[in-house]
Please model this.
Amino acid sequence: STGRMNMFSIRKRQKEECKKMLSLWQTPDKDEYWENLWKVLVCDSFCRDLLAPLFSFDELQKCGVTLLMSINAPRQPMPDVSAIYFVNSTKENLNRICEDCSNGVYDKVYLSLASHISQPDMEEFAKNCVAKDCVQSIAKLTEQHTNFISLEDTLFTLNHSQSYAAFNNPTISDEEATANVEKTVDGLFSMVITLGKVPIIRCPKGSASEIVARRLYERIHNELASVPNLFTESAATIGGVGSGSSFQRPVLLILDRNVDLTVMLSHSWTYQSLCHDVFDMTLNRVKVNVKEKDVTAPKMYDFQENDQFWVNNAGSPFPNVLVSIRQQVDELETKMGRKKDNDSLFGEDGGNPGRSIQDQISLLPELNRQKELLAMHTNIAASLLEQINARGMDEFFKLEEDLLSNANQSLDQRLLKLIDDEKGTPEDKMRVFLIYYLIHSRTITSDELSVFKSKLKACGCDLGTLAYLQEIKAFNDTWTQSSKTSAQPKRDDWLNMFSSIVSKGVQYLVPANKNYHVTRIMDAVMELKDTADTRDYLYLDPKFPLNATPRKNTAFKEGIVFMIGGGNYLEYQNLRDFVQKQGQQENTLGAVEKQIIYGSTEICTGVGFLQQLGSLGSSVLD
Model:
């Protein structure tokens, strides 16, 4: 199944597309390929972030890039060198490019736009180039359709910060609401084009996901009408199979973040999720405080796809990762015939976590790569352990597990004790309380709520987050009934929906050792199960007109889940675990394994999500 996995890898597809761009869409049998072998690459901040998880600088050099520069930085003229501008199609970027061409900064300019350029912007750019007499400098202009960031083979983000607040802000203007939808649709359209397959789109009715889904359907449908072989070409150039026959096509499930808020607030216990939540991992990079020779200093570490330890352990529970680190060190020592006595994992005196591992690693000078990677993971694990102990994160995690798996059980006293405890940040305490509130909001009395509020306030918590969730609850109580009879919205109603819709009721997780809510919905959609959750979901096939869509009657083998308003590594890992379990079962039956890609408007930490709820809550309190 590895071949199929690679075919359905968003990162590999995007990397191939970027490699074609870097070779100026030429192959080594063409003269132009060799004439422009070396070039300068000029990016805006979004495209630089897009390239970071895909290429190391060494890899960019192998693609002929001698310099990677920012479009906004001052740049020296290099009139003998060709340049690729890889940028989003903003007016500022286009004006800057026009300016550079007019000043003869580079010889030939290859313009690769990550996002769609509108007709009026294109015409204005052409006029400016003519006015400044620099049309001859522009050798090629291409819409790259790569307006998203691939973090892993099955994980992507649109990198739209504050996206939950943007999609749930009742005071937003119509212009901003439309811009949010268009920005999201453009990123999803790019992802679909890069994947090279026309998806069937499913989503619940009456939420932000419906607005995005209908607009995306329209965009793909219209594009197919004007460029019928668009997807076939896209896939053929990347070694895929095009839009293919119907059973090859993936399902794209678009969901609103409000279907499950608890997962965004939960404390995590897997290695990757902890790295994100504790160190705010960004573009697969973390900043960790490392102690060396009694001096503590911050160090940057990159998680790369060729780091086998990361690949094997990113989704593992943290205690297992500590054991794995020890095993790896022991294996290396055994190879070298330097097996030491079996001393404690955290040093004889239980002092600096991971200290003895570092001592042992220093005995392996000739195995540099393994030594560096193990040293990196040891430092990260030691720092994580320090944070877990200092904040008592295991206590928060355990209480959240119990809350989510025993929804009917009262855990008030444990929660109050945890809020009173000196361990844990105000954000840690607010997160666990909000999970409790989401589960018990229908039964909690105003007196009980007052006790919690005064204790939370005393330890420095922002109560704006609670004000926002109370607003949602009041809205859901009236919304749940009325939504059942709501008609399909016309396109003119889209903007009106923004001001009123939050969600069709906030639904909750089950225990972490089972499938999360989003995983269960995805399973139902891929297997065509008739469940209460998914029965009324829209079914949009961009290959057909809206009123003449035949339905697929065999299960999907490939799926994409997209969360509007943010996602996180807990939800991503739960989907991965589900796919793996299914794969093990199906392998025994000889069936084809499922593949699922997970994407969202942004990958958000628990604290980051809390801040967005707080910003919405402050507008409620005002």
In short: Residues 390 and 423 are 7 Å apart (CA to CA). Residues 1-5, 235-247, 339-350, 478-512 have pLDDT under 50 and may be disordered. The radius of gyration is 26 Å. The first strand starts at residue 39 and ends at 43.
